[in-house]
Every structure is written in C-alpha cells, then in structure tokens.
Specification:
The chain has about 230 residues and is of the alpha/beta class. It has 2 domains: about 5-15 and about 100-225, HAD superfamily/HAD-like (Rossmann fold), CATH 3.40.50; about 15-95, Orthogonal Bundle (DNA polymerase, domain 1), CATH 1.10.150. It has 8 helices and 6 strands, in the order E-H-H-H-H-H-E-H-E-H-E-H-E-E. The protein has helices at about 15-30, 40-55, 60-75, 80-95, 105-115, 125-135, 155-165, 175-185; strands spanning about 5, 115-125, 145-150, 170-175, 190-195, 215. Strands 3-2-1-4-5-6 form a 6-stranded parallel β-sheet, sandwiched between helices. Helix 1 packs parallel to helix 3 (about 60-75) and helix 3 runs antiparallel to helix 4 (about 80-95). The protein is elongated and about 60 Å long. The protein starts with a strand and ends in an 11-residue tail after the last strand.
Length: about 230
C-alpha cells in the first residue's frame, strides 16, 4: 500500500551537527577559560540555548548568537575586536560547510519515491534550510517540502490535517527522538527512528522500548526493507 513518508533532513539525509560540534570546540579554544572544563562551558551554553531557541529558533545564526552570549557571561565582558573576527570566521565556516550526504541516502530516496509519496519536513531558519536542500540535490525526490519553526505534536497534527492522509498510512522518519519520534507518535503517526552518532544532545529524549507504530533502524538504507 502506498504510504506518505515524512523525512527529516539534518543528520538524517546529510551530516549537520558534527559541524556545530566542531564550532563549539573552536569556541572553547577561543574562550580559553582558566577554570571551566569544556563540559561546564557546554552546560552554560545549554542554559542560554534553552531560552533563546524558543525566541529565535534554530540555525547557524542563532547558534553563533548564543556563543557570543556565552562568552560575555563567562568573561563578564563583550568579545574583543580580534575575538569578533574569529567568531565571524567561525560563522562563515559553519554556514558554508561541505554538504555530506549520509551513506545510502540518494539510492534509498529514489527507491522510496517510486513507491510512496515523500515529504521533506525540517525545522530551522527557512533560508538556511532551503539553501542546504538546494545544495544537496535531493529536492527532486520529494513531492512537498516543509520548513517549520518547531516539530512537535501540534505541528504534526496540523500537517496531517492539511494533508488529509490517514495516520495509519503516514510515517515520520528521522534521527531525533525529541523532534521526529516522540511527537509523531503522540500525533498518532508512525515513526521510524534512525539513530545518528552526532545527534544534538538537546534532541535526545526517551524512546519507547516497544510501540506498535515505532520502527528502529540502524541505517537509512534499511528503509528499503520495510517500505
């Protein structure tokens, strides 16, 4: 039976968070805090991100804004002119990082699109996400593309209502327990969890040990065995 498959983008179709992690490592070097460990710096950044992500959303620009605020908080002073230059270079490198498709994505999408209807569902800054979609060359596999501010149960319910498809024939596929798996199941959809070793730690949450609409796959290409 033909299904409607909603597919996440970052760290599901292409590498993404690893570039943010590398930027954070560069930030720790720049900060060069005399007492705090990298994890303690990360904890401070997490506090800032929990607040700012609700206001400004996600993406490279907001991440760099959060890093600047973190530096100011830990230094109790704004960055110097030379530090601003380094931060600007870090931002440019982050925005323009190479597009690295995850193994098996291209052929798997081609196979799935021949049998089912595919919808790309990603969250973040619209311009930045669209640029990544364009650079990936994958848009041709999708009948629809949606860039949303947040992926939660209400978002999925609204999208499902708009699409007019039955929940029993709709699946959300992605690497994030918090954004792809948990809210999709809450909205009555099926969910396919494809773990990624570099999933952003703020996207982790408990995944049910057993659920009739949950499928856990080791690789994206394994979708061809089930759909």
């Amino acid at each position: 039976m033909r299904q409607e498959l909603w597919i996440d983008a970052d760290d599901t179709l292409w590498e993404n968070n690893v570039f943010f992690e590398r930027t954070f490592d560069r930030f720790v070097e720049l900060l060069n805090h005399p007492h705090l460990t990298p994890q303690q710096v990360r904890d401070q950044l997490d506090d800032i991100e929990h607040v700012n992500n609700k206001v400004h959303g996600y993406g490279s620009a907001n991440f760099m804004r959060n890093l600047r605020l973190c530096l100011e908080r830990l230094r109790d002073a704004p960055p110097s002119a030379s530090e601003r230059e380094v931060l600007d270079r870090m931002y440019a490198d982050l925005v323009n990082h190479p597009m690295e498709l995850i193994d098996g994505v291209e052929e798997t999408l081609g196979y799935l699109a021949s049998k089912h209807e595919l919808l790309l569902c990603t969250k973040g800054n619209p311009a930045e996400q669209q640029a990544k979609i364009d650079r990936s060359g994958l848009a041709r596999h999708f009948s629809h593309i949606r860039i949303v501010r947040e992926k939660d149960a209400d978002c999925y319910r609204s999208l499902a209502s708009e699409r007019g498809r039955g929940a029993e024939r709709t699946w959300m596929i992605g690497n994030s327990p918090k954004s792809d798996v948990k809210p999709a199941l809450e909205a009555g959809l099926g969910a396919v969890y494809v773990p990624h070793p570099h999933t952003w730690h703020l996207e982790h949450c408990h995944v049910p040990d057993a659920h009739p609409r949950l499928l856990v796959l080791e690789r994206f290409s394994h979708l061809m065995n089930y759909f």
